[in-house]
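Page 37, continued from 36.
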């Protein structure tokens, strides 16, 4: 069910088409799509009373099990619709949360999904109980499940605190691994993009990994990293991340922040775009919005327009570094590697630091974050020639920067 304001009418069809794909990903069949464009959204039911009666009659006539609304419903709207429509009612947020519950394999991923589900559920407990006995399994009941729905707010809040503590431990463990990678001075290249743009396929083709790749939304949820050798002989760490989507539930962004923040640690982002999608521009804007929310919009980006082999529309463009390619074309893959190689070396800072030997912590830090080319002790000073990604240099403390001169 798609309902929008007149100012949003142009994007209603595409948003409903995306909702249909999400429904398919959640393993349900779409029977009918209904649309309504309004001057104002009804605070009680979102839709008008006449449309509500039409849906209720249709549900009974066709024995429909589920009605999904293409917006996040308020607690009041969800309770009212749940009472008025004789079947289960979900909104777009619940559907996406359900898909994430299906796709989460790691401990961190499962905890993050449960956290998002419980935080979404907490203000919506009132009115849910009337239909709990006939919900059964399936869409909208994955994750915490009926038992969680029956406990009171206090217990849910307690569980939320437990999950957050559990996530803190998982995050510390991952940060330890990231610290080790930094000590190895491995450049971080991270794949980002709209869901189903082809990120996992690209990772598999470049590294020989065996990450799940399907023509479904959110086929990949948990981040996967693999080493990748560039034409110059340098090794980088290539990481695949969860796909973004329009109207990504804020509960998910908040719950998955610890995972998404890995994007901020990247030295280079490969923004993978489905170049064959008719709304590629809108999808790019959705990704850019999330990157901005994460504070990652200052990282050098190579926009990868994928699926050139299926191209039916005019070539999409973007500012900055771009490449049009197919993940299944070997020559295209080589060209991509060459561009990544060039970007890495063009965005590096080359310098020499003269640090007092008494400042061992500064010397250790430089060795930890930079690729040291040469070092020599001269009296009471250690002279260190190094290179590192420009973003890492910019994050250095003023104390260290004061000891550094740039090499040309």
């Amino acid at each position: 069910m798609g309902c929008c304001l007149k100012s949003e009418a142009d994007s209603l069809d595409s948003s409903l088409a995306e909702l249909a794909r999400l429904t398919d990903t959640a393993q349900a069949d779409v029977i009918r799509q209904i649309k309504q464009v309004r001057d104002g959204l009804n605070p009680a039911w979102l839709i008008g009373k006449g449309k509500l009666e039409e849906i209720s009659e249709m549900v009974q006539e066709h024995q429909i099990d589920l009605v999904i609304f293409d917006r996040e419903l308020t607690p009041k709207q969800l309770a009212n619709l749940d009472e008025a429509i004789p079947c289960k009612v979900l909104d777009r947020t619940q559907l996406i949360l359900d898909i994430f519950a299906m796709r989460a394999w790691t401990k961190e991923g499962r905890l993050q999904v449960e956290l998002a589900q419980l935080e979404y559920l907490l203000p919506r407990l009132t009115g849910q109980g009337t239909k709990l006995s006939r919900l059964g399994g399936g869409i909208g009941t994955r994750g915490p499940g009926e038992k969680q729905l029956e406990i009171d707010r206090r217990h849910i809040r307690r569980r939320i605190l437990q999950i957050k503590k559990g996530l803190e431990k998982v995050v510390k463990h991952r940060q330890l691994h990231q610290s080790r990678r930094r000590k190895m001075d491995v450049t971080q290249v991270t794949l980002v993009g709209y869901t189903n743009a082809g990120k996992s396929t690209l990772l598999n083709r470049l590294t020989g990994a065996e990450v799940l790749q399907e023509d479904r939304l959110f086929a990949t949820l948990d981040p996967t990293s693999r080493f990748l050798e560039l034409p110059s002989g340098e090794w980088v760490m290539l990481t695949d991340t969860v796909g973004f989507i329009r109207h990504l539930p804020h509960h998910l962004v908040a719950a998955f922040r610890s995972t998404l923040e890995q994007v901020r640690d990247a030295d280079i982002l490969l923004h993978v775009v489905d170049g064959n999608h008719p709304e590629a521009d809108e999808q790019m804007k959705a990704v850019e919005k999330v990157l901005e929310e994460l504070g990652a919009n200052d990282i050098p980006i190579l926009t990868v327009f994928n699926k050139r082999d299926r191209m039916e529309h005019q070539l999409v463009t973007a500012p900055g570094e771009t490449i049009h390619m197919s993940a299944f074309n070997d020559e295209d893959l080589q060209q991509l590697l060459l561009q990544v190689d060039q970007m890495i070396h063009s965005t590096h800072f080359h310098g020499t630091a003269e640090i007092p030997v008494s400042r061992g912590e500064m010397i250790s830090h430089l060795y930890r974050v930079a690729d040291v080319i040469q070092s020599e002790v001269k009296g009471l000073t250690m002279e260190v020639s190094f290179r590192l990604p420009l973003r890492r240099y910019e994050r250095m403390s003023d104390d260290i920067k004061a000891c550094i001169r740039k090499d040309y």
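The chain has four domains: 2-99, 105-134+142-184, 186-345, 348-406. Flag for discussion at group meeting. The first strand starts at residue 2 and ends at 5.
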